[in-house]
Amino acid sequence: MGVNLTDAAIKALGRQAVREGLKELKTKDATTRGLLLVSKESGVQEWRYRFRQHGRDRVTVLGKFPKMTLAKAREEAQKARQRVEAGEDIHESKRAARQPFSAFLDEYWKRWKTGKRQGSIDTVKSKVKLLKSKLGDTPVSMISTSKIADALSGEPASVAHRCLHICQQTLRIAVISNARPDNPARELKSSDIPSAAKVRVPRTAVPLADVLSVIEQVSERSVVSSDALMIMALCATRAEETVLAEWTHIDWEHKTWFIPAANRKGRLEVRHPLTTPLSNHAVSVLREIAEQKLSSKWLFPGNMGGHTDRRTVLHNLKLVAPTATLHGFRSLFSTAANDSGAFDGDVIEVALGHSLRGVKGVYDKGTRLERRRALMEWWGNCIMGNESKLIEFPAAVAS
Questions:
Q1: Class of domain 7-88
Q2: Which pTM was predicted?
Q3: Tens digit of pLDDT per residue, the chain (399 long)?
Q4: Which residues are CB-neighbours of 249 under 8 A, at least 6 positions away?
Q5: Considering the domain 101-192, what is its CATH architecture?
Q6: So what's the architecture of 208-389 in CATH?
Q7: Which of 48, 44, 45 is nearest to 57 (CA)?
Q8: Cα-Cα-Cα-Cα dihedral sign, residues 310, 311, 317, 318
Q9: Cβ atoms 27, 87 nearer than 8 A
Q10: For strand 274-277 and strand 56-65, is the pairing parallel, antiparallel, or unpaired?
Q11: Positive or negative, the Cα torsion across 350, 355, 360, 362?
Q12: Hey, where are the domains in the chain?
């Protein structure tokens, strides 16, 4: 039989435990099944919920009286009963709730990085490291909107936005693991976080007339970086595709460069390989590189035995042209090719490795290899400054 507990009755039971020196005086609440009040000789009184799970009698502590009132204790006992009936292991959930935020952040990182490009991994890794330094030791159950906002306050807006997204996904894992009942990060918006004043740094492409001069200056610092920049400029390829190139990808006979799907941009399941035609100028540059680096499988080897890193190439470029970007070579190519009026827009887009938009992109799987070859030959002449040798386009190639 239980007792119809009231505040007065609870206090009386506390005094009785102290007066009689009872180690634990357990009192059932008649109103809520499984709810126990435990009064100790020290004067401490706590609420417990008793239940049966996995064939065993089990008990979990809900809180202490008077901090947890009678009404709140009954409410928490009802919630605990619902969780047990739903099959949740309350003890396991409590252990998970005591785990640090970093444990769930590691799980997020493990899941997220699968199938991602190295460039994307490097970008997000720095944000994960930042969150670990700010929130990593905090128990996941103690993470709140205010803690997240304080941790990200003062960071650049773009960093805060990405970190907030990571927090949302990490706490989603915690909710699924029953480590906490809610996801406070979802209540926040990037605009709620005071960010550092944004410093706009102009980003430009190296002017066409200066490409060779800039690459030559880079070669004084790093021959590998200058070689990579030259191929990016001549082939209009992405930085990641370029630094991951291997000699086995080059077909000297047909003057093509095969870029595997794994080296390309986008989600792994939607990437497609790309065969890029090489201009005579690109082939000439590659042969010069091959004479020096036949001992490595990489076109652009790094110092540690692997390939060079795009960040290294970018760093060396910025030492010469501080506002330039690696992607600027692709922008320069696209602008020049479209402004020439000599090439069909679809040919230019395929040359850039872009998928055609809309319904056309769904049905049209043409590679336009020979038309792209003419385009890249023209572009090679533009880069090398051979205006007098610009090729004439037959009707089949012109737009």
A1: alpha beta
A2: 0.58
A3: 678 899 999 999 999 999 999 999 999 998 898 999 999 999 999 999 998 887 888 888 889 999 999 999 999 999 888 888 887 777 777 776 678 999 999 999 999 988 887 778 888 999 999 999 999 999 888 899 999 999 999 898 889 999 999 999 999 999 998 888 899 999 999 888 887 665 666 677 889 899 999 999 999 999 999 999 999 999 999 999 999 999 999 999 999 999 999 888 876 666 789 999 999 999 999 999 998 865 789 999 988 778 999 999 999 999 999 999 999 999 999 999 999 999 999 999 999 999 888 888 888 888 899 999 999 999 999 999 865 444 444 444 433
A4: 257, 258, 259, 260
A5: Orthogonal Bundle (1.10)
A6: Orthogonal Bundle (1.10)
A7: 48
A8: positive
A9: no
A10: unpaired
A11: positive
A12: 7-88, 101-192, 208-389
* Residue 63: both structure tokens together: 């809180």
Q: Are 313 and 225 in contact (CB under 8 A)?
A: yes
Q: How far apart are alpha carbons 264 and 219 in whole angstroms?
A: 26
